[in-house]
Design brief:
This protein is mainly alpha-helical. The protein has 49 helices and 7 strands. 66% of the residues lie in helices and 4% in strands.
Length: 921
């Protein structure tokens, strides 16, 4: 406690240091004023501007980083934006890599990467695919030429990162060029780029110094020029290798007999580094040599860090001297606060350092670990604990950091990599590590391993009585049941958790309340689900968790869709989309939860263009969602759109792909729903026998049919339709009536409407046609309230024939002005709904529009929509609207679409006229 004031005083410096360290990776190293100009290499690099990918591969010491830094320094004058990212080994975590990639783009242009960074900071719900898609969205809309440089790419060996980068590379717009520098051949699939002439490849042959360049370079470094023969000798021996030439020049500077030195210096093997390093180091003062060897183990360092880990006060002066002597020291930021040694020289220094007696290097690593921990840089703190061989300390740091790493950063790969380096005994002794591990396993869909870890943690809770640990473990268990398709277990566990932990922190409470809402949706406890969502929203608003709020909106959509209220579902979608656009962007994991569900709603309501747009936004994340409803909505809507586009084969392939995913992840509900839709696809094509055989093979109908408690609505509809068509079973009509009673009991209004329509067609085929029309009238009236359209259009053609009959019988119900007579208006399906349905089916020409004043009350506009209307009145176009509201043009178009829909118009002029007519503006 005595050090409390000191710790408080260092807090600001710690945060500043962290910011500088992050910043240092987002800019090229600072260039020396005495840098050699390389016109031929510069011309080659500039030629790469016209390609999609510029590959720079050469061993260490060929000046790749310096040449690229020179190159990008010339681009700003040409109006080209440059983004730079220096990679390190920790970027093998896909989320960490993408977080830094987004930061590099944002550093280059504040309009880029903002939403991706927000997503990356979303913690456990952050999705690498979502972040890549968000970055691509930004780049596609970027209006300037842009160069993105990834330096030291050889350090990134994780295939998951390679695949994400390949996807981004394949979709880059023409105005963006990716430059990758590596010591080794790029592990990317680039053959297609090579064939299309979109790849420029430079290697060591392009980066080696020519004879004249070597003469100039050696003269600058050694302080005195060599004669031509000496330069030729040195150039031949090094083959133009810049690091070798620099080491030789440094040694020449200290040599009394240059001729003798060159005579002894022979061979082109890279082992000359050792020889020349010895020549250079032996010529230095002992204290300067010790400083180099002591700091060799630090990947990056500043004077403050060096002072502490080395126990000295003159590190700033020592660094200045190292730099003045050209000893392979690179500045990493504009203020020249952070530095690193050239990789080749650092490797040599580390080798020499390990030859020294004692544990000095280990002690330095441990002091560095402590410094980085205090400065809130846990990745480096853990790294140096491992390098200092203090596994107890490393385990403690991982335990302290695991919750933040998994819940708030989503860096599951980083945690899993650390765990492979820790003995099991140390892990098992630290439950915090195990809870982070369990979180990672659940959220990365490693369910068997998650179950094993959770059971071990539950046993530990029972033994030691740690309430905080039990609170976290029980929360993860709730999420586990929701993710593994056990909604009733998730519901009961969540109810118990909320009663047991009324004072839990807001984040945990919000997570469990959302899980409870998902269970309520599956069990038709709609009122309880709304109450759970109210708890979740309050909790997530308290801790500013927009991801959690997006989840709450998505769950509210699911509740509305389960009830069959597609109008309310669309209203919930708008609320959630507004939340997501505020911080995370619609092209995000959080946005995809909403867009996939909204695609299904838009499809049902006949807005096919908007359904396609939502599917495109959600498609990159369709396989990543923990709840099957989002994934199901995506596959179903994508397949249905393909069928309407005249490509039933693509629709079937899409459904089969999703079904396979369900089997692979052991999600039988997902597989069963999509299997049923494959059968429905055949029914829609008129292939009844084929549909029946396929359904039998799936166990949906026939003697081998498997009974499923609480069967999904779509599966129930299919099996009833097949049984009625084949007159299969004891009483298909009785089964239909049972299903109608269940839908009424459970409050599934849309399902009830569909079942009544099925009953009406069954009655019609049984020649009870008067009753059939009455039953269908009831179904359509219910469908109008639910907002159904495609449910009727995608079904049996007989239904539309019957709709035409009902429509024709209503002709005398219109007054001369086109309105319905009041006596019948509230007893029958709305005539406007019948006309909309028949027009969408191409069955009739639309009747004249009723006067606007006679329409039903206009749906209320939001404040944002009213503001857009006022700006429209002022004459602003889409771009001006976007700029004034700080939105993208795509978002403005989405709001305009909603305004037109609510006002019942099709264009701006009509919208303004309607708004003025009803006194909105």
């Amino acid at each position: 406690m005595a050090q409390g004031s000191s710790a408080m005083g260092n807090a600001g410096a710690a945060e500043a240091s962290a910011a500088v360290l992050v910043e240092s990776r987002l800019a090229p190293p600072q260039l020396s004023l005495r840098l050699l100009a390389r016109s031929q290499l510069s011309a080659l690099l500039h030629a790469g501007l016209t390609r999609r990918l510029l590959s720079v591969t050469a061993p260490a010491g060929y000046g790749k980083t310096t040449a690229l830094a020179q190159f990008v320094s010339q681009l700003d004058a040409r109006g080209i934006t440059t983004a730079w990212l220096s990679l390190d080994a920790e970027d093998n975590d896909p989320l960490r890599f993408l977080r830094y990639l987004a930061a590099a783009l944002h550093h280059a242009d504040a309009r880029l990467g903002r939403h991706a960074l927000a997503q990356a900071d979303g913690g456990s719900m952050a999705s690498p695919d979502a972040i890549v898609a968000s970055l691509l969205h930004d780049l596609v809309n970027h209006d300037r030429r842009l160069i993105l440089v990834l330096d030291d790419f050889h350090l990134v060996q994780q295939q998951a990162v390679h695949r994400k980068l390949e996807w981004l590379l394949a979709h880059l717009p023409q105005n963006v060029c990716l430059v990758i520098a590596s010591r080794t051949r790029l592990p990317l699939q680039v053959s297609q780029l090579r064939l299309r002439g979109e790849l420029l490849e430079l290697d060591a042959a392009h980066f080696g110094l020519g004879l004249d360049e070597a003469a100039d370079f050696v003269g600058r470094v050694s302080g005195a020029p060599l004669d031509r023969a000496q330069v030729e000798t040195l150039h031949d021996l090094t083959e133009g290798w810049i690091a070798g030439l620099q080491l030789a020049s440094l040694a020449l500077r200290e040599s009394d007999d240059r001729g003798a030195f060159l005579a002894d210096f022979s061979g082109t093997d890279r082992d000359i580094t050792d020889y020349l390093g010895e020549q250079v180091l032996d010529s230095l003062r002992p204290d300067l040599r010790d400083f180099l060897l002591d700091t060799a183990g630090l990947e990056r360092f500043c004077a403050e860090l060096c002072d502490e880990v080395l126990g000295r006060q003159d590190s700033r002066a020592m660094l200045a001297e190292v730099q003045s002597r050209n000893l392979f020291l690179s500045g990493l930021d504009r203020s020249r606060t952070w530095f690193r040694y050239h990789h080749l020289f650092a490797d040599y220094l580390r080798g020499r350092s390990r030859e020294r007696p004692g544990d000095a290097a280990r002690a330095i690593s441990l002091r560095a670990s402590d410094w980085f921990q205090r400065h809130r840089l846990p990745h480096e703190a853990v790294r140096y604990a491992f390098e200092g061989q203090d596994l107890e300390r490393a385990a403690d740091l991982v335990a302290d950091f695991s919750a933040e790493l998994v819940q708030h950063r989503g860096e599951h790969a980083t945690l899993l990599a650390w765990l492979t380096r820790l003995p099991q005994a140390l892990v098992h002794a630290r439950p915090k590590i195990r809870t982070g591990h369990a979180w990672s396993l659940v959220l990365t869909r490693h369910y068997p391993e998650a179950e094993q870890e959770l059971r071990a943690l539950e046993s530990a809770c029972a033994e030691d009585g740690d309430d905080d640990l039990r609170c976290v473990v029980e929360m993860i268990r709730c999420v586990y049941w929701a993710h593994t398709g056990e909604p009733l277990l998730a519901k009961s566990r969540s109810e118990g958790w909320l009663k047991s932990w009324p004072r839990a922190n807001a984040f945990r409470t919000g997570v469990v309340a959302n899980v409870l809402a998902s269970g309520c949706c599956a069990s038709d406890a709609f009122e309880q689900g709304q109450q759970a969502l109210a708890i979740a929203r309050r909790a997530f608003e308290e801790c500013d968790a927009d991801y959690g709020l997006a989840w709450a909106s998505a769950l509210a959509m699911m509740l509305a869709m389960r009830r069959g209220d597609f109008n309310d579902a669309m209203a919930q979608a708008r609320t959630g989309i507004a939340t997501v656009e505020r911080s995370l962007g619609l092209a995000s994991y959080a946005g995809s939860m909403l867009t996939l569900l909204a695609a299904e709603v838009c499809y049902e309501q006949g807005d096919l263009q908007q359904a396609r747009r939502f599917i495109e936004l959600g498609l990159p994340f369709i396989d990543e969602h923990g709840l099957v409803e989002m994934t199901t909505a995506g596959y179903l809507t994508r397949a249905r759109l393909s069928r309407l586009a005249g490509d039933p084969a693509a629709a079937d392939a899409c459904l089969l792909e999703g079904e396979s995913l369900g089997h692979r992840l052991k999600l039988p509900r997902l597989a069963r729903i999509l299997a049923a839709e494959r059968c429905t696809l055949r029914l829609q094509a008129g292939a009844l026998d084929e549909a029946h055989k396929l359904a039998q093979s799936y166990g949906l109908v026939g003697p081998a049919a498997t009974a499923v408690v609480d069967e999904d609505d779509s599966v129930c509809l299919l099996t009833l339709r097949l049984r009625l068509a084949a007159q299969q079973g004891a009483s298909p009509a009785g089964a239909l009536n049972d299903a109608i009673r269940r839908a009424q009991r459970d409050g599934h209004q849309a399902q009830l409407a569909r079942l009544l329509a099925m009953k009406a067609m069954h009655q019609h085929r049984a020649l009870d046609r008067a009753q059939a029309l009455r039953t269908l009238d009831e179904a359509l009236a219910l469908g109008a309230r639910c907002g159904l359209l495609r449910s009727w259009l995608d079904g049996d053609a007989l239904l539309l024939d019957m709709v035409e009959t009902i429509h024709a019988s209503r002709g005398d119900l219109r007054t001369a002005s086109g309105n319905l007579r009041p006596a019948s208006a509230d007893k029958l399906v709305p005539l406007a709904y019948l006309e909309q349905l028949l027009q969408a089916a191409g069955r009739t020409t639309p009747l004249p529009q009723r006067p606007a004043a006679a329409r039903s009350e206009t749906e209320e506009l939001t404040e944002r929509e009213l503001k857009i209307l006022r700006l429209l009145k002022a004459g602003l176009g889409n771009r001006e609207l976007a700029q004034s509201l700080f939105l993208s043009e795509a978002t403005v178009k989405w709001h305009l679409h909603n305004i037109f829909t609510k006002l019942g118009v099709k264009n701006r002029t009509s919208a303004l006229a309607r708004a003025q007519e009803i006194s909105l503006i």
